Automatic annotation (TrEMBL):
Keywords: Oxidoreductase
Gene3D superfamilies, alphabetized: FAD/NAD(P)-binding domain
Keyword tRNA processing: no
Organism: Streptomyces gulbargensis
Source organism, top-level taxon: Bacteria
Protein known as: NAD(P)/FAD-dependent oxidoreductase
InterPro entries the UniProt entry points to: Auxin_biosynth/cation_transpt, FAD/NAD-bd_sf
C-alpha cells in the first residue's frame, strides 16, 4: 500500500455490528474535507486511537487507524472474563458517543468491546486491520510508517496509540526457564475454570492481580495465595454511591502531602485493617504512589477474600527452583500454577526509540497536543496511568490532539 492508493485503504475500512445502533447516542460526523492525499495516521485501534480518529473526523480531518490485530479493541477482547470497568460508565465514554445506560454503572468487558465496535461504526472511522506499524521514520517534513506487507505510508501527522499495556512483563526470576510448574502471565488468564481444585500463586497486588486472586477464590481454586512485594493502597470502588474515580479527578492536582494525609484518614474509616492478614497499610501516601505510576487497587472482592482466608497473602517471589517457588521471607512453596500479574511494558522502542522521543523509562517525552521537540507532527496518547481514569484522559487527549492538528491544517502548517 502506498500513498498513491488511498482508495485501497478506504475499501479496507473496517465494518462493525449494526445491531446496537439504536442503543447509542451519537452525533453524525460531518462530511470530510477533500484532502485525501495525506490522512493522519493513527497507530492502534484501541480506545485511544479510535477517540483520536473520531475527534479528527468531527473536525473534517481524515484519519486512518492502523490496527495490527483483526478487530478494534484487541486489548479488551483479551482481558479476563470477569473484568468490569472500575471507572464509571459516564466518565469512561469516548468523545461523541455515550455508552448506553443499559450497560450499567460498571461496564462489563464484553460491553466495552461492543461499545468500541459501535464507536468505530457510528463515527464512520477508517480502520485498517491486520496492519502492524513496525517503525516510524522522519523523511524531510514527513513521517514514513513501515508496516505489514512492505507498506510505506507517508503523513505529516501521526498519532501513536499502541497502548500502555502493550507487552506482558514477566520477571526474569532465577530458575524461570527450568521451573516445572505451570507459569503464565495474567494476560493469558481468562477465568477460574481451568484452576478448579488447584493450588495457585498470583504474583503482584495491582488491580489485575487483586482481581484475579479474588476470581480464583470465588471460582473454586483449591488454594489461592497472593505474593506481594509492595503493599498496595486499597480503595472502595465507590462509597455511599460516590465513585473513587471522582475523588481521583478532584485531588489529582492538589499537593500530594495534603491528599496523602486525607486519603490515609479515609482509608482508616472505609477500609478494614488487613495487617493481621499480611497486608499492612502502606507507608507511602496514596497520591505520592499514584504520581510514581502505581494507581490504588479498587476493591472488587480482595478485602473479603483476604479477611476470610480465601486468599492468603505471602511474601514476594525471589526465584523458582524446579517445582518450588522461593519467597523473599525464605519460605519455599509448591503451587500448581503461578500467574504473574506483573504488569506490561509500553515497548515503544522498536517503533520510535531511534527518534529520541522517549525518556529513560521508555515513556514519550510529550503527550496529548504537545509533540516532542525534535518530532513535530508525532503525537502520543495513552502512555500514562492517571488516577482520574485512563479512558477519561484518552478522551481529553483526543480532543486536544484533534484541535491542534485541525488548527495547523487551517493555518496551512501540516497536511
Ligand atoms: C485489565 C485492565 C483494566 C482496565 N480498566 C480500566 C478502567 O476501568 N477504566 C479506565 O479508564 N481504564 C482502564 N484501563 C486502562 C486503559 O483504559 C485501557 O488499557 C485502554 O484499553 C487503553 O487504550 P489504548 O487505546 O491506549 O490501548 P489499547 O487498548 O491497548 O489499544 C492499543 C491498540 O494498538 C494496537 N497496536 C499495538 N501496537 C501496534 C502497532 N505497532 N501497529 C498497529 N497496531 C498496534 C493493539 O493491537 C491495540 O488494539 C484498564 C487496563 C487494563 C489492562
Amino acid at each position: 500500500m502506498t500513498d498513491s492508493q488511498p482508495k485501497a485503504l478506504v475499501t479496507e475500512t473496517y465494518s462493525v455490528y449494526t445491531s446496537l445502533r439504536s442503543a447509542f447516542m451519537v452525533t453524525t460526523p460531518p462530511p470530510l474535507s477533500p484532502q485525501v492525499v495525506h490522512p493522519v495516521y493513527v497507530i492502534g485501534g484501541g480506545p485511544g486511537g479510535l477517540a483520536v480518529a473520531a475527534t479528527l473526523r468531527a473536525r473534517g480531518v481524515r484519519a486512518v487507524v492502523l490496527e495490527k490485530s483483526d478487530a478494534v479493541g484487541a486489548s479488551w477482547r483479551g482481558h479476563y472474563d470477569r473484568l468490569r470497568l472500575h471507572t464509571t460508565r459516564r466518565l469512561s465514554s469516548l468523545p461523541g458517543l455515550r455508552m448506553p445506560r443499559s450497560f450499567g454503572r460498571w461496564v462489563a468487558r464484553a460491553d466495552v468491546v461492543r461499545y468500541l465496535e459501535t464507536y468505530a461504526e457510528k463515527h464512520e472511522l477508517e480502520v485498517v486491520t491486520g496492519v502492524e506499524v513496525f517503525r516510524v521514520e522522519r523523511a524531510d517534513d514527513r513521517w514514513v510508517l513501515h508496516a505489514t506487507g512492505g507498506r510505506r505510508l507517508t503523513g505529516r501527522a501521526v498519532v501513536v496509540a499502541t497502548g500502555f499495556n502493550h507487552t506482558p512483563r514477566l520477571p526474569d526470576w532465577p530458575g524461570r526457564d527450568t521451573y516445572t510448574g505451570e507459569l503464565l502471565h495474567a494476560r493469558a488468564y481468562r477465568n477460574p475454570g481451568p484452576y478448579a481444585g488447584k493450588d495457585v500463586l498470583v504474583v503482584g497486588a495491582g488491580n489485575t492481580g487483586a482481581e484475579i486472586a479474588a476470581d480464583l477464590a470465588d471460582g473454586g481454586a483449591g488454594r489461592v495465595r497472593l505474593a506481594v512485594r509492595t503493599v498496595p493502597h486499597i480503595v472502595r470502588r465507590s462509597t455511599l454511591g460516590w465513585p473513587s474515580q471522582r475523588s481521583g479527578i478532584l485531588v489529582r492536582r492538589l499537593p500530594a502531602a495534603l491528599v496523602d494525609r486525607v486519603a490515609a484518614l479515609l482509608a482508616r474509616i472505609g477500609v478494614p485493617d488487613l495487617t493481621p492478614h499480611g497486608l499492612p497499610r502502606p507507608d507511602t501516601g496514596l497520591l505520592t504512589r499514584a504520581r510514581q505510576g502505581a494507581v490504588p487497587v479498587q476493591d472488587v472482592g480482595l478485602i473479603d477474600a483476604v479477611r476470610s482466608g480465601r486468599v492468603e497473602v505471602v511474601a514476594a517471589v525471589e526465584a523458582l527452583d524446579g517445582p518450588d517457588v522461593l519467597l523473599a521471607d525464605g519460605t519455599r512453596i509448591t503451587p500448581d500454577t503461578v500467574i504473574a500479574a506483573t504488569g506490561y511494558r509500553r515497548a515503544l522502542e522498536p517503533l520510535v526509540g531511534h527518534l529520541g522521543v522517549l525518556d529513560d523509562h521508555g515513556r514519550p517525552l510529550a503527550r496529548g497536543a504537545r509533540c516532542p521537540r525534535e518530532a513535530p507532527g508525532l503525537y502520543f496518547t495513552g502512555f500514562t496511568n492517571p488516577i482520574s481514569g485512563m479512558l477519561r484522559e484518552l478522551s481529553r487527549d483526543a480532543e486536544k490532539i484533534a484541535r491542534r492538528i485541525a488548527r495547523l491544517r487551517r493555518a496551512g502548517r501540516g497536511a
